[in-house]
Amino acid sequence: MTRRRLPRWSELRPYLRTGPIHLSPVERRLAGAASVWDLREIGRRHTPRAAFDYTDGAADQEVSLRRSREAFTRVEFVPSVLRDVSEIDPSTEILGMRAELPLGFAPTGFTRLMHHDGEPAVARVAGKAGIPYALSTLGTTSPEALAEAAPGTHKWFQLYLWRDREASRELIDRANAAGYDALVLTVDVPVAGSRLRDVHNGFTIPPTLSARTLADISRHPGWWFNLLTTEPLTFASMTRWTGTVAELINFMFDPTVTFADMAWLRSVWPRPLVVKGIQTVEDACAAVDAGADGIIVSNHGGRQLDRAPTTLEQLPRIADAVGDRAEVYVDGGILTGADIVAAVGLGARAAFVGRAYLYGLMAGGERGVQRVADMLRREVLRTMALLGVTRMADVTRDRVRLRDH
Question: Is there a catalytic annotation at residue 300?
Answer without folding.
Answer: yes
